[in-house]
Amino acid sequence: MALSTKLELRQGQALVMTPQLQQAIKLLQLSNLELSAFVEAELERNPLLERDDQPAGPDPFDQTIDRDGGDGPSTAAADQGTDTWMETGKAAVDPAGDLDTDYSNVDPDASTGASAMPGEGSWASVGSRSQAFDDSDPNLEEYVASVPDLADHLGAQLALAIADPVERFIGANLIDMVDDAGYLRGDLGQLADRLGASIAKVEKVLAVMQRFEPSGVLARSLSECLAIQLREIGRYDPMIAAFLDNLHLLARHDFASLRKACGCDMDDITDMVAEVRRLNPKPGLKYGSAPVQTVVPDVIVRPRNDGGWQVELNSETLPKVLVNRSYFTSVTRHAQRGEDKVYLNDCLQSANWLVRSLDQRARTILKVAEEIVRQQDAFLTYGIAHLRPINLKTVADAISMHESTVSRVTSSKYMATNRGVFELKYFFTSAIASAGGGGESHSSEAVRHRIRQLIDAETAEGVLSDDAIVQKLQGEGIDIARRTVAKYREGMNISSSVQRRREKRMAERARVPA
Q1: Which of 37, 23, 106, 38 is nearest to 356 (CA)?
Q2: Digit-coded pLDDT (tens) for 219-258
């Protein structure tokens, strides 16, 4: 076969996402805190962006849902603006020309053929922002003293307790092996080999450091942690030492074997249990605990007087930014160099896209939340027992979006309802078939709730085994296997029927007056 050189013209189709479209898709999966950080970084980077400090008017993202599944009058008004710029394919105010793109049916996991554009904000800059201190907007967090963690606290005590440089070096390595709870994780023999020290030397340093505060720190097991604290208060004796060596019997509520191992009666066991309960099993958390972050809902659902639901976005979590076109016009008029004009045009394009992306993100979240409320109307009305089994595809098909888009929308987003605050992913549960093959399926979360109800209603003489729970659930029309019941029970940290019977009998004996 002869080889030849020739030119051919071929026509094909390929999915190519612009950097702006990729950014819009990434905005979907950000939580409200991450979104605020990203917008703050853009406000610093782009001189054409500014905050919208005007008082909030009527919420344009307010929708009402009737019990029959229809939308209230405000739905059409809210969607009118979306259709205008989602379907035309051209931007009325943006010179880029590709800003008005509907990404609801685009698979973000598909390969892209675009590279980063000049002037586009760096995604990696989120969270690494530094704010300059000035009189108008002081960053007081830069002047707040840091709270020492557990390692700092132990290091300060090490400098005072041990003077020998070699032993202090061993102690510093031991501190590196301490976890957040205060326990020593790692093998002392391996540490001794790595440092070229004897195991006796390492254990000597460890014995000194185990007297550090908080009491019980640097223990290698729960028994050792409790023993250290008991020695501190002078309560450690041979009987309680045997008790700590057999904590596994206490976990199984095998009090007969525990009495035999300790050589005492039940009253002594009760006293030692009460003594141990006053101790701290995780002393390191006093210094390693992180501050609790309050969950701020992204969507608020309120019941209406006519029986429907009012779904609205929480305006407090929506960043409000504007494009300063007057400033752009003024600066462009005086720009002399070509690169300055290119920079300003890039800033305008990026600012326009960010404003539209935030608007599209808000509308997409509201659309998904509205469909979730429609699907889970029975849960909001009657409770968890009526939670329907739905998945991402169910919602995606109902609102004509891609399944991956719905997954990103429901990530790290919360909904405040009359039943409490739930993550959007909470409403997506697997299905358990109904007994006999007929009727609607049951949500796995509702089945877990029913299992807990059955166990909470038990008495000491009527503890239900997993097989008995299966029979009761099948009698209620839930087709479930015994291994599934056991998995759900263990997932809710509920002990076996044998242990529950022992616990209930102990509780009854404790209530009987002597």
Answers
A1: 23
A2: 999 999 999 999 888 888 888 889 998 888 888 878 888 8
Cα distances (Å, whole numbers) of residue 238 to 227, 243, 275: 11, 9, 15
Count CB neighbours of 256 within 10 A.
10
Of the candidates 406, 362, 371, 361, which has an alpha carbon nearest to the alpha carbon of residue 301?
A: 371
How far apart CA 84 and CA 473 sit, in angstroms, is 51
Whole-angstrom distance, CA of residue 188 vs CA of residue 199: 7
Dist CA 107 CA 103 (whole Å): 8
Asked if 177 and 191 count as a contact pair (C-beta separation under 8 A), the reply is: yes
Q: Which residues of 17-34 are buried (b: 16+ CB within 10 A; e: fewer)?
A: bbbbbbbbbbbbbbbbee
Strands 431-432 vs 414-417: parallel, antiparallel or unpaired: unpaired
Q: Over the range 289-322, which residues count as b (16 or more CB within 10 Å of their CB) and which as e?
A: eeeeeeeebbbbbeeeeeebbbbbbbeebbbebe
Instruction: Count other C-beta atoms under 10 Å from residue 95's C-beta.
Output: 10
Nearest to 387 by CA among 331, 463, 441: 441
Residue 469 C-beta-side C-alpha neighbours within 13 Å: 28
Nearest residue to 310 (alpha-carbon basis) of 395, 364, 374: 374
pLDDT digits (tens, 9 = 90+) for 393-414: 999 999 999 899 999 999 889 9
Torsion (CA) 75, 76, 82, 84 in degrees, nearest 10: 180
Residue 374 contacts residue 145 (beta carbons within 8 Å): no
Which SS3 state, helix, strand or coil, does residue 8 take? Answer: coil
Over the stretch 302-340, which tens digit does the pLDDT of each residue have?
A: 999 988 999 999 988 888 889 988 888 888 888 778 888
Q: In degrees to the nearest 10, what's the CA dihedral of 281, 287, 288, 292?
A: 100
CA distance 31 to 299: 12
Instruction: Decide the pairing of beta strands 49-51 and 321-323.
Output: antiparallel
Model confidence, pTM: 0.59
Q: Can you tell me the distance from the alpha carbon of 159 to that of 165, in angstroms, rounded to the nearest whole number?
A: 10
Distance CA 508, CA 381 (A): 37
The secondary structure of 223-291, three-state, reads HHHHHHHHHHCCCCCHHHHHHHHCHHHHHCCCHHHHHHHHCCCHHHHHHHHHHHHCCCCCCCHHHHCCC
